[in-house]
Amino acid sequence: MILLRSLRDTNKKVTLLNLFQTVVQTNKLHLNSVLPNKDDFVNINLQGNSLKYPSVWLRDNCQCEQCFHQSAKSRILNLCKFNVNVSIKSVVQDETSVQVTWDDDHVSRYALNWLKFRSFMPEDQLKYTKTLYRPVKTPWHGKDFHKVCAKHDYERILYSEAALYKWLQDLSTYGVALIQNTPNCDTALDGIVEKIGFTKRTHYGVKFIVENVANTSNVAYLSSNLQMHVDLPYYEYCPGVNMLHCLVQTLSEGGENLLSDGHHTASYMKNNYPDQYKLLTDIEVEWSDVGVEHGNEFFKLYRSSVICLDRHGYVKRINFSVPQRGSHFPGPIETVKPWYEAHSLFYELNQKFAAQFKTEAGDILVFDNIRLLHGRSAYEDKSDNVRKLIGAYVDWDEIYSRLRCLKAKLNPLEGI
Ligand SMILES: [Zn+2]
After folding, report:
1. What is the pLDDT of residues 185-212, one digit of tens each?
2. What tens digit of pLDDT does each residue of 81-113 get?
3. Near ion ligand 1, which residues have CB within 5 Å?
4. Span 142-408: which CATH code?
5. Residue 59 C-alpha to ligand 1 middle, in angstroms?
6. What is the C-alpha separation between 330 and 299, in angstroms, rounded?
7. Domain 41-120 part of CATH 3.40.50.1980
8. Dist. CA 33 → ligand 1 center (Å)
């Protein structure tokens, strides 16, 4: 069915017979390539366990200077001369390494630690995914917010790599982490950003100021109620993390933050409202932002579903913003009303699951912008009390990279 649809999408006219032949040929090709011969795998003994490695993978990952550039830490073998059906002359193992001599007399040597770290055993692959690839995300309900939102200290993050690591680890796991005791100046946020890398610049600038502005270019710059949303869903490369430094908090009623974990809501919908969940994962809508900021015109459009899944069915991104959803609906007309019902349900559940709190001057609220929805209740400025936040975005690529660098330094993994 998937094959049929994708062929139709490319506007190729195929008869059922063609299709049948394609499937048969594909299967044949598949079968031929998976039939193992004795040279396809090498078994290596590691502390009493026999671990199996594909020969083609070993040859591809030869660590010698002809195949791997030592300072660039990158593969340099010539793919034009690469033999997928490589065969082995001999395998010799000592206490710390394995030496493989290939049919063309090329010799590869691998440290046992290096091999162990790259084990193909499913449990080892899973361990690597969780420890080094990306920390596992823990979804939460707003009633547990006080437990999941860890408090971190500004100075400690600047001067201790362990504190920086802990903060980024909490942020990746729960999608939120608060920094306290931040100096009361417009550039204080820069110090934190520099500990990670650099900001994600958008058409709202390198940093942005959130305060009440008449004739604003964005509804966030008003003092009225701000419905829960993610920032900038109209970017294909949507900013990963939002950092909001509170310089002046309102003394009036309101100005409270609302935060809801979109992963928790998605999982709740999947279990309790599967049809509506499917609509929100399948149907693309158009996110948009059109206007002028700092004299620069912008016309941003991006089509995507509200809940975006990866190929394993895990949520990889949440898009939600009432003001920044465009009026063009790219899907079939029959899907519109059911989609609106599912969309309203998603919002209602996020409101139900949201945590409500009020940051103080000196707080930097840091949260995952492609996972959490955030909002703010209405407030009122006074002449001597004008609420002011300074914000910046940082991408997940930079955060995960910093986390891995810190992990390798603070808690070295054998064979990395
Ligand atoms: Zn080599």
Report:
1. 999 999 999 999 999 999 999 999 988 8
2. 999 999 999 999 999 999 999 999 999 999 999
3. 62, 64, 66-67
4. 3.60.130.10
5. 7
6. 17
7. no
8. 24
